[in-house]
Design brief:
Layout (H helix, E strand, L loop, with lengths): L2 H10 L2 H4 L8 E3 L4 H8 L4 E5 L7 E6 L3 H5 L26 H4 L6 E3 L4 H11 L3 E6 L3 E7 H15 L6
Parallel strand pairs: 1-2, 4-5
Antiparallel strand pairs: 2-3, 5-6
Helix pairs in contact: 1-7
Length: 165
């Protein structure tokens, strides 16, 4: 299989075919203690926030970089018009649970979407990871650039494809 054929196969794969098992991705419930979320973020780039483990309804995402806002005092977020929603996201601003600091608009993709769909969305929004959902809100997995790279390399090895100069 040449690189072109491998890429064609790669692009047509369904996200659900290559996403990791749900129990291997970082997930917390909306009422999870913020300090436990911070412990998770020491080794992860993000954590998905769901309403509860039964519904798995996606509430939001907390990214590693969001920790800066969580740790800063509320006054560092103030603008001329007073408090902003970001200021409430700090520990000193009263945030205690995962839902208090989660970005409520995580980027999602349906599990039946293709790798090409995922790559297109990642480029458009300049993100490296998407929540994979079923029915628009039930979290069933994630797809990241790292997962996509691994899958492409696996396909190339399996097919014995060689890059041509």
């Amino acid at each position: 299989m040449d690189v072109e054929a491998a890429l064609e196969k790669f692009h047509s794969l369904k996200v659900s075919e290559i996403m990791p098992k749900i129990d291997t991705i970082p997930i917390v419930t909306a009422d999870s203690d913020l300090l436990n979320v911070l412990k998770l973020l020491r080794t992860r780039h993000h954590v998905w926030v769901v309403k509860d483990r039964d519904s798995m309804e996606l509430v939001g995402v907390i990214r590693y970089m969001d920790v800066i806002d969580i740790l800063l005092p509320p006054e560092s977020h103030r603008f001329k018009l007073g408090m902003t929603s970001r200021s409430m996201r700090s520990l000193l601003g009263g945030a205690t649970k995962a839902e208090d600091v989660a970005d409520r608009h995580p980027l999602t993709i349906e599990e039946e979407a293709t790798v090409l769909d995922a790559l297109t969305k990642m480029r458009r929004y300049k993100v490296q990871v998407l929540a994979v959902v079923e029915g628009g809100e039930r979290l069933v997995g994630e797809i990241s650039l790292r997962i996509l790279i691994d899958e492409l390399l696996r396909l190339l090895r399996v097919g014995g494809a060689q890059w041509k100069e």
